[in-house]
Amino acid sequence: MTGSDATPSFRLAYVPGVMPDKWVRVWNERQPDVPLILTQVPAGAAAELLLDGDADAGLLRTPVDRTAFGAIPLYTEQTVVLVPKDHLVTAVDEVAPDDLADDVVLHPLDDVLDWDSLPGRPALERPATTADAVELVAAGIGVLVVPLSLARLHHRKDLTHRPLRDAPESSVALAWPEDAKTDEVEDFIGIVRGRTVNSTRGRQQPSARGESTGADRGGARRKPVSGKSAGAKRTGRSGSGAPKGNRRGKPRRRS
C-alpha cells in the first residue's frame, strides 16, 4: 500500500498526567474520517519519539527545544506535596518548603520539576520512577513533590496532598517537529486554541476550501450601480433619494 493509498490518521503522544480527552472528543466530532491515535510516553522520551517520526505531535512538559520543535504553551500546573493522610502538614491548607525541613523528600529520576535546591532531607537513593516514589510515600519513607496532575494520576486512599508554595512549576505545551508540520497538526492546533470549526484562522475544512471569506460567505455584496447614489440603494429607490418628508410612506401631493 502506498502512502497516498493509506488511510490518514493523526498520531498524538502525551506524557503522564496530561489529560487530552476533551481535545480528542472535539477531534472525533470534527474529523470522524481521520482516526486520532493516542500514545502515552514517559516525559523524558517524548521528544525523541517526535523526532523519530513515531508521532505527529505531542503534549509535552516544558522546556521544549525550540530549535527542533514548534510549540504552543497550554497551561501551568500547581505544585503539591504528596504525604500520608496522618502527616502533620495535612492540618494546613498550604505548605511552605520550610515545613518539610524534617522530612525526607524523595527525588525520582523521572522528576519533571526543575529544582535549584530540593527542600527537606535527601533520600539515600533516588527512586527510578514517580510511581516507585509514591509507593515509598505510602510506606512512610518520605514525601514527594509533584505537579497536581501526577498526584491525581497516582491517587491512593492512604495518601493526600497539599499545595506547596515557592516551588518550581511544570507547564505543558503542544509540540511538533519544526520541519514536519502536517495539516492534521494545524487542525489540532485550532482545537487546543478553542477555534470553531468555521474559524478563518488555521486550515479550513475541505468543504470550505476555495470559498471567499468576509461578505462572500453570507452572499456577495453588490456594488452600487453606476450613476446611482448609495442613498438610493439604501432606500430601495433608483435615482435621487426621496424627500425627507416622504421617507415614512406619506403620499406625495399631486400638482
Task: Report on the architecture of this protein.
With 255 residues, this protein is of the alpha/beta class. The protein is 18% helix and 20% strand. The protein has 6 helices and 10 strands. It has a 5-stranded mixed beta sheet. It has a 5-stranded mixed beta sheet with strand order 7-6-8-5-9. The longest helix has 10 residues, at 21-30. The radius of gyration is 30 Å and the shape is elongated. The N and C termini lie far apart (86 Å). The relative contact order is 0.16.
Condensed summary:
By secondary structure, the protein is α/β, with parallel strands linked by helices.
Which properties best describe this structure?
five-stranded mixed beta sheet, 20% strand, single chain, alpha/beta, 255 residues
Strand content: 15-25%
User: Roughly how many Å apart are the termini?
Assistant: 86 Å
Backbone CA Rg? 30 Å
Lateral arrangement of strands in the main beta sheet? 2-1-3-10-4
Please estimate the helix content.
10-25%
Uncertain segments: 206-248
Structural class: alpha/beta
The total of beta strands comes to 10
**Mean pLDDT across all amino acids:** 83
The biggest sheet amounts to: 5 strands, mixed
Which of globular, elongated, flat, extended, rod-shaped describes the shape? elongated
Helix-strand sequence: EHEHEEEEEHEHEEHH
Figure out the total of helices: 6
How is the secondary structure organized here?
Layout: E1 10-14, H1 21-30, E2 36-40, H2 46-51, E3 57-61, E4 69-76, E5 79-84, E6 104-106, E7 121-122, H3 130-138, E8 143-147, H4 148-153, E9 159-163, E10 171-177, H5 183-192, H6 230-235
Parallel strand pairs: 1-2, 1-3, 6-7, 6-8
Antiparallel strand pairs: 3-10, 4-10, 5-8, 5-9
